[in-house]
Amino acid sequence: MPAPFYDADHDAFREIMRAFVTREVAPHLDEWEEARETGRQVWKSAGALGILGLRFPEHHGGGGVSDYRFRCVVQEELARVGAAALASGFSINEDIVGSYLNELGTEEQKQRWLPGMSQGDVVTSIAMSEPAIGSDLKGMKTTAVRDGDEWVINGAKTFITSGFSSDVVLTAARTGEKDGRAQLSLILVPTTARGFARGRKLRKLGLHAQDTAEISFTDVRVPAENLVGEEGRGFAHLTAQLPLERLSIAWRALTAAEAALEWTIRYTSERKAFGKRVIDFQNTRFRLAEMTTEVEITRSFLEQGIAALNDGQFDATLGAKAKWWTTELQNRVINGCLQMHGGYGYMDEYPISRAYADARVQTIVGGTTEIMKEIIGRDLAARYRD
Fold this sequence. Notes:
Distance between the termini: 41 Å
Shape: globular
Order of helices and strands: HHHHHHEEEEEEEEHEEHHHH
Strand order of the largest sheet: 1-4-5-8
Number of strands: 10
Strand content: 15-25%
Mean pLDDT: 94
């Protein structure tokens, strides 16, 4: 068998993470589902324990740890109790917005935002999707026009994770055209800016504890230095960061599937039907054997992906493969696990019910399965182009 994925440092961190989840997360899951947001206390508690900002530099308030396996531990422990909404919110803060700031931000931007993100005092969002065009970035309507030392932003965004509670939004906007093509840029917009407005808190199939909102910009003015990266290079910046985003989605998918299997093996070992345990029926054992094998093989692939990421070798094609396979697997496994729970699987008192609803968005967010296959297919075609 290959060497263990984790070492003693990860195991020690897991103890901290598991205690945090037991104390600060699990008791509040139902409350957050009803409120349709988690509130700030759990963020502050996570920040105080060093769970947030793991990959941010120490001089910017973070953990200074480039090894992504520590983030894997965070996601595993949240998945264990079915806290998919919080896992997604943490990932937006660190793996997406935090990654853009780490890689592209100015020193002033990092000093201003990263310490608060590490401490749980600052929650971030990223705004790309729009009401009329979804995630088709080429059709983006939101504009940012330079006016002296400011950007003036107008437009609307939708499906914004943490959009109702965030403090700053990394916003994609059109800042010009070149050769008939829209030039996109990324701009940090504090949610206190005049003209920034939150719309309704969107009601969703799953991830109820994660607030998702519509937002709008009406002549919002922000300083020119809020530009992240290069002007007009927004599409390239987004493309460069997508592999990490997709790997983080893939790892959440894997850990959710693993948790669902654990719950189901335990349930079928305790539940009796027709005088014997459900797990003693051959169909149950065969189906569990199939799902367990698929999940373990998938973990092996993703562990290799994490190693490639740590070595700077993880690319867009690997990200697409990881994302489409694991999210489709997550939905298949959780669907099969719910079936084995019978009628109780449909009841919210069992975590498999919530996991079933939470899983559905995974094949859509971060790029649909179909788009992932297109990325892989283009790469294959390019290899054999004359």
